[in-house]
Give the backbone structure.
Amino acid sequence: MFKKIILIVAVFIVILLALSFGELAFGQVFAWISSLTGVLIRNLDELFTVVSAYLQAHTGKVLLALLLTVPASLWILGSRRESLGRPTSQRRIAIVLAIFLGWLGAHRFFLGQIGWGLGFLVMAWIFIPLAVVLGLIDAIRYLFMDDETFAATQLH
């Protein structure tokens, strides 16, 4: 019962903070990215433009990075196959993804819920604070689930 109350209070606080500071926070994030890169970014459209320009200017580097990422990822996943297959590990990975990339639906894609992941992408494109709030709510839900419930309800 106590976990449920904490969950409800945490969800309320996350929603309240997102509604209060969501757009301001993303403005700050874009300003920080702009100060690091020297490229002015005010919204997702400009971010897409900057990423597209980078990909066109540095296609060789991106392809080389992809070519090096595939074998390295396969090696890491192969060596950790037993531990990554357990619901506890998958739950932990889903929590981290939901916290940091939940607004893009990365946690849903990781769990094999492609439709929900695409829904998060569309939501982020339309109204990003809502996508952030829902990603954080998922992180809180996963945090308070036990491993059996997580495996039964989230893994496909």
Summary: The CA atoms of residues 4 and 144 lie 8 Å apart. The mean pLDDT is 74. DSSP finds nine helices and no strands in the chain. The longest helix spans residues 2-37.
